[in-house]
C-alpha cells in the first residue's frame, strides 16, 4: 500500500521534471518558473472553463442548424 | 538546414571501385560505416519551444536590467553612447547573458589533478545563479570521459614521466629564442626525424601550438589566386588559416564525395568567379576524425579524386594520430593507403601523446619551404624540453609491445562503449570505430540536467551546445581512453542508463530502447 503511494509520488515528480525539462524551465530561476506556470495555468484554465460553459450550447445549435 | 539522412554504407564506394575489387569494397564499407540518424520531430519541436521560452525570459530580464529594476551583472560596453562601433555583437551577448550564464557551472570546470582516466574536479558553488563562484577548497573525484587522452599518456608515473623529468633536469624549461635564431636544440631535430619516420614520410616540422600550426601555416601554402575546398565541419583553426591566407574557399557537404567532385569540376572549368582565370592550385582540406561528429574522412576516395583532378590534399589528423590504425599511425594506417599520397599531413601532440604542440609532415621540399616562410617557426619561441621529451618517449613506446597494447585497448574500448550505447537506444553519431562518441541530447535543459546528474554519480562529461554545434543538435561528447578499464566503462554505462531513463534520452527509432540490464 505504502509502496504504491510512494511510486505514485515518484511518478508525479517524474512528470513535473519532464515539464521543467521540455519547456526549459529547469534553467530558470524560481520566480520565473512561477510566472510562466501561472501564465500557462491561467491560459489553460480559461480555455477549459470556456469550453465547459459554451460548448454544449454551441454543439446543440450546430446540430440544429445542420439538421 | 543540412539534411542529416541515414547513410549506413558509403554509396560512393560502389561508384569508384570496379567489380574485381569486390572483397576490398566490402572491407571499405565496414571501415567507413557511419551513421547520422535524423532528428526526431518531437525533439526538434520541443527544442525550438525551449529556446523560444528562454528568449522570452531573456527579453524580460534585459528589459528589467535596462530599466534599472535589476542590476546589470555582465560585461557592459563603456562607450556605447559615444557612437563607436559596438564592442559586443548583439545576439551573441544576449545569448551569453541570458542562456549561457544560467547554466555556466556545467562548463569550464577547473580540474585539480592530472587528467587521467580518473581525476579530481574542484568544487565550486554559486549563490547568485552562476554570476560569481566561490571555491570551497574540496575536490570531487570523478571518472574522466572528457579529456583527449586517447592513449592514456596523461600520467605522472611511468617511463615517459621519468624521461621528461630527466629532460627537464638537463635542459631546464625555456629556450629563450626562436627556432630560426638560436633556439633549435638537438631534441627538436630528433623529434622531427622521429615523427617523419613514424608517419612514413620524408620530413616533418614541429610547432609549439596545435591551433597555430593550422592557422599560421595554411597562409604559407595557400595564397591569393588559390582555391581551398574545405569540409563544412572543419575546425575553426583551419577556417582561420584559410581566411588569413587570402585564398578563395568553398565548403562541400560533410564527407560527401559527390559534392566535392562536382565542386572540383566546376572550379576547374570555370576558374575565378568573375575573371574566369584558372586557379593557381586547388587544395582540399579535411580532418581525419571530426571531433564533434565522430566521423572519419573518406581517404581512399579523396586520394582518387585528388589524383584525377590534380589537387592537393591537406589532412588534419589532430584527433586521429595515435588513436586510429593498427599501429597508431593515423587514418593513413587505418585505410592502409600510401602516406606519400596525402600531400600535407598535419597533426597535434596534444591528444594522443599527452603533450602539446603540432606538426606538419610531407615532402622535404614542402617542409623546407615552410621552415623558411612560416611565422610560427620564425617568430615563436621554440618548444620546451619536457614537452618534446614526452613526445619522444611516447613515440618510442608506441613502437614496442606496450604501445601496441594501448592501441588495442583503445580500439576495444571504443567498440564496446559505442556498441552498448547504440544498443540501449541512444542516438550516437559517427563511425563505429572512432574513439570520439557524440550522443545527442537536443534540448538545452536536458543537456544541463544530464551533466549535473552525471557529476553527482561521479562521472565528468563534456556537453556542448550552441554555438559550437548547430542550434538543434546539442550533444554530449565522450572521449574514450586506453587507460579506461572495463569497470570504469561499465560504471559510466550504468550511470548513463539511469540518467537516460530519468530524463528520457532514448530518441533512436532504429534501435529498440532497452535498459542496460536487459542487454
Automatic annotation (TrEMBL), chain A:
Membrane topology qualifier: Multi-pass membrane protein
Keyword list, A-Z: Endoplasmic reticulum, Lipid metabolism, Membrane, Sphingolipid metabolism, Transmembrane, Transmembrane helix
Sequence intervals crossing the membrane: 12-28, 34-55
Record InterPro entries: Ser_palmitoyltrfase_ssu-like, SPT_small_subunit
GO biological process: ceramide biosynthetic process
Key word Oxidoreductase present: no
Keyword Calcium: no
Domain of life per record: Eukaryota
GO cellular component: endoplasmic reticulum membrane; serine palmitoyltransferase complex
Family annotation (Pfam families): SPT_ssu-like
Family that this chain belongs to: Belongs to the SPTSS family. SPTSSA subfamily.
PANTHER family according to UniProt: SERINE PALMITOYLTRANSFERASE SMALL SUBUNIT A
Protein known as: Serine palmitoyltransferase small subunit B
Organism for this UniProt entry: Adineta steineri
From TrEMBL, chain B:
A GO molecular-function descriptor: pyridoxal phosphate binding
PROSITE patterns: AA_TRANSFER_CLASS_2 (PS00599)
Biological processes, Gene Ontology terms: ceramide biosynthetic process; sphingosine biosynthetic process
Hydrolase is among the record's keywords: no
UniProt keyword list: Acyltransferase, Membrane, Pyridoxal phosphate, Transferase, Transmembrane, Transmembrane helix
UniProt keyword annotation of Acyltransferase present: yes
Cellular compartments per GO CC: membrane; serine palmitoyltransferase complex
Catalytic activity reported: L-serine + hexadecanoyl-CoA + H(+) = 3-oxosphinganine + CO2 + CoA
Transmembrane segments: 41-60
Broadest EC class assigned to this enzyme: transferase
EC number: 2.3.1.50
Gene3D superfamilies (UniProt xref): Aspartate Aminotransferase, domain 1, Type I PLP-dependent aspartate aminotransferase-like (Major domain)
Aminotransferase class I/classII large domain sequence ranges: 143-496
Cofactor: pyridoxal 5'-phosphate
Family statement: Belongs to the class-II pyridoxal-phosphate-dependent aminotransferase family.
Name of this protein: serine C-palmitoyltransferase
Amino acid at each position: 500500500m505504502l509502496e504504491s503511494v510512494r511510486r505514485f509520488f515518484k511518478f508525479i515528480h517524474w512528470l513535473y521534471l519532464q515539464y521543467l525539462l521540455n519547456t526549459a524551465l529547469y534553467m530558470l530561476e524560481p520566480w520565473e518558473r512561477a510566472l510562466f506556470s501561472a501564465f500557462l495555468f491561467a491560459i489553460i484554465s480559461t480555455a477549459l472553463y470556456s469550453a465547459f460553459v459554451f460548448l454544449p450550447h454551441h454543439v446543440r445549435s450546430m446540430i440544429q442548424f445542420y439538421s | 538546414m543540412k539534411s542529416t539522412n541515414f547513410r549506413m554504407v558509403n554509396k560512393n564506394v560502389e561508384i569508384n571501385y570496379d567489380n574485381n575489387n569486390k572483397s576490398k569494397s566490402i572491407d571499405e564499407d565496414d571501415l567507413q560505416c557511419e551513421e547520422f540518424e535524423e532528428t526526431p520531430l518531437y525533439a526538434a519541436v520541443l527544442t525550438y519551444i525551449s529556446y523560444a521560452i528562454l528568449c522570452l525570459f531573456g527579453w524580460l530580464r534585459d528589459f528589467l536590467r535596462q530599466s534599472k529594476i535589476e542590476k546589470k551583472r555582465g560585461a557592459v560596453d563603456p562607450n556605447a553612447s559615444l557612437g563607436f562601433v559596438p564592442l559586443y555583437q548583439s545576439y551573441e551577448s544576449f545569448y551569453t547573458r541570458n542562456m549561457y550564464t544560467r547554466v555556466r557551472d556545467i562548463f569550464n570546470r577547473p580540474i585539480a589533478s592530472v587528467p587521467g582516466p580518473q581525476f579530481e574536479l574542484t568544487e565550486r558553488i554559486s549563490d547568485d545563479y552562476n554570476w560569481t563562484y566561490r571555491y570551497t577548497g574540496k575536490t570531487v573525484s570523478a571518472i574522466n570521459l572528457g579529456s583527449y587522452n586517447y592513449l592514456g599518456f596523461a600520467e605522472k608515473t611511468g617511463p615517459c614521466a621519468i624521461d621528461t623529468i630527466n629532460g627537464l633536469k638537463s635542459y631546464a624549461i625555456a629556450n629563450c629564442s626562436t627556432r630560426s635564431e638560436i633556439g633549435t636544440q638537438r631534441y627538436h631535430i630528433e623529434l622531427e626525424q622521429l615523427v617523419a619516420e613514424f608517419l612514413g614520410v620524408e620530413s616533418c616540422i614541429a610547432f609549439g601550438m596545435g591551433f597555430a600550426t593550422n592557422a599560421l601555416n595554411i597562409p604559407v601554402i595557400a595564397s591569393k589566386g588559390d582555391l581551398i575546398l574545405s569540409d563544412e565541419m572543419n575546425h575553426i583553426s583551419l577556417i582561420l588559416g584559410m581566411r588569413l591566407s587570402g585564398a578563395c574557399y568553398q565548403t562541400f557537404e560533410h564527407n560527401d564525395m559527390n559534392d566535392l567532385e562536382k565542386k572540383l569540376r566546376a572550379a576547374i572549368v570555370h576558374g575565378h568567379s568573375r575573371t574566369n582565370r584558372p586557379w593557381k592550385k586547388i587544395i582540399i582540406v579535411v580532418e581525419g576524425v571530426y571531433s564533434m561528429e565522430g566521423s572519419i574522412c573518406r581517404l581512399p576516395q579523396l586520394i582518387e579524386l585528388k589524383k584525377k583532378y590534380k589537387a592537393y590534399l591537406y589532412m588534419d589528423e589532430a584527433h586521429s594520430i595515435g588513436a586510429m590504425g593498427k599501429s597508431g599511425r593515423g587514418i593513413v594506417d587505418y585505410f592502409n593507403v600510401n602516406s606519400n599520397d596525402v600531400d600535407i599531413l598535419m597533426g597535434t601532440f596534444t591528444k594522443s601523446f599527452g603533450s602539446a604542440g603540432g606538426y606538419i609532415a610531407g615532402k622535404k621540399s614542402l617542409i623546407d619551404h615552410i621552415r623558411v616562410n612560416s611565422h610560427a617557426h620564425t617568430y615563436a619561441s621554440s618548444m620546451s624540453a619536457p614537452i618534446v621529451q614526452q613526445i619522444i618517449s611516447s613515440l618510442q613506446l608506441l613502437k614496442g609491445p606496450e604501445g601496441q597494447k594501448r592501441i588495442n585497448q583503445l580500439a576495444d574500448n571504443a567498440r564496446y562503449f559505442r556498441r552498448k550505447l547504440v544498443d540501449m537506444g541512444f542516438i550516437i553519431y559517427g563511425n563505429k570505430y572512432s574513439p570520439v562518441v557524440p550522443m545527442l541530447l537536443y534540448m538545452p535543459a536536458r543537456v544541463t540536467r544530464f551533466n549535473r546528474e552525471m557529476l553527482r554519480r561521479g562521472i565528468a562529461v563534456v556537453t556542448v551546445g550552441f554555438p559550437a554545434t548547430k542550434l538543434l543538435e546539442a550533444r554530449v561528447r565522450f572521449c574514450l581512453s586506453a587507460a579506461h578499464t572495463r569497470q570504469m566503462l561499465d560504471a559510466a554505462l550504468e550511470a548513463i542508463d539511469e540518467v537516460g531513463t530519468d530524463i528520457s534520452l532514448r530518441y533512436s527509432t532504429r534501435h529498440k530502447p532497452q535498459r542496460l540490464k536487459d542487454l
